[in-house]
């Protein structure tokens, strides 16, 4: 009986393998010529860099593009042999050219996108590009540096009974803003406000996030392509809350002679005597009077000295009555005034950290040759010129700094002082 042949046995037959290979090769060839060789369409996505086009417009017309990113994606439809349009070669070959010839003046302009082939030997047709153009606003660059004005609205009453909201403020580094954008828009801006709505009935300070808004003089919002030059359009605004109190008014003195630090021998009058004020509650604790001015002894001459103080110059205080200007009168009696040659001895006070007063500081010159000394007659007449010492105050010099500085100078004595302003030129090495 004849043995039955299995299909798997055929692959051990060289003649069968030869015929099978020819058939398979013919099939692949037929697929390649029929399937891959057919005409077809394919969509290609390209990222277009617009920065070069923007630079060209800026160089030619000094116009800037506003309200648009530097890149845009376009979709290109190409037609050709399937094995061509399906390959990466087409993606790499296509370049998109940006036509800026339509941009001639400020305003809305149109960029046109054109497709170009880098390889003339790669045959395919461009059917469509979408989008094929882009509308962009061009304008001259404008900027303004403005103070930020807090503009706060409250839900309900702002503060609890017995308290008042003081003048809002921002940290110094955030109190100004540089507004930039199209010149036609920036020129409309009159001010920048920081707006927030806050729950009221406050009893203590509150920090709030307020949104920056650019406004025209009439109060209309300007927002088209406006940039505030900050990472965020919000800023921190502090709402100070003050406790209401009636306090006697007083003043204090700086650079007093040693004998007058505790006991002031001269008559001091403040008018009016008291005021209705709002003061931070912690500051109010233990406060018996409100100092409205610090008077340097160098400003005191013999006789009557009158100083004017504006309510707005007193920090961290809200004056709640009608008085906005105060006077401080200091009557200096039982003293004489004499002129002396400037002493040679000088000491340095409030030396900044990192500076050695003996080795790091040199006196360049005193900006004066004579001093006017005021004090009790016996003390002035007994002054020993050789022992007189001037003190130069370095408190306004930042630590670890070097260079030349102008510093204020005072007289170091028990009950005498120099009248007027005196300065010295020093160098810190």
Round the mean pLDDT to the nearest integer and report it: 89
Q: List low-pLDDT spans.
A: none
The count of DSSP E runs of length 2 or more, i.e. the number of strands, is 29
Radius of gyration of CA atoms, rounded to a whole number: 42 Å
What overall geometry do the principal axes of the alpha carbons give? Answer: elongated
| Terminal CA distance | 120 Å
Please bin the fraction of helical residues. 10-25%
Structural class: mainly beta
Largest sheet: 6 strands, mixed
What's the helix count? Answer: 7
Give the strand content: over 45%
List keywords for this structure.
429 residues; 6-stranded mixed beta sheet; 29 strands; 5-stranded mixed beta sheet; mainly beta; single chain
Question: Mind sketching the topology for me?
Answer:
Layout lengths: L13 H23 L2 E11 L1 H11 L2 E3 L4 E11 H4 L2 H6 E6 L7 E11 L7 E6 L2 E7 L1 E15 L7 E3 L10 E7 H4 L4 E9 L6 E10 L5 E2 L11 E6 L1 E14 L12 E5 L2 E7 H4 L5 E7 L6 E8 L7 E2 L5 E8 L3 E6 L3 E5 L11 E6 L3 E6 L1 H5 L7 E5 L9 E10 L4 E2 L4 E6 L1
Parallel strand pairs: 8-11, 15-18, 23-26
Antiparallel strand pairs: 1-3, 2-7, 3-6, 4-5, 5-7, 8-10, 9-15, 11-12, 12-13, 12-14, 15-17, 16-21, 17-20, 19-21, 22-25, 24-29, 25-28, 26-27, 27-29
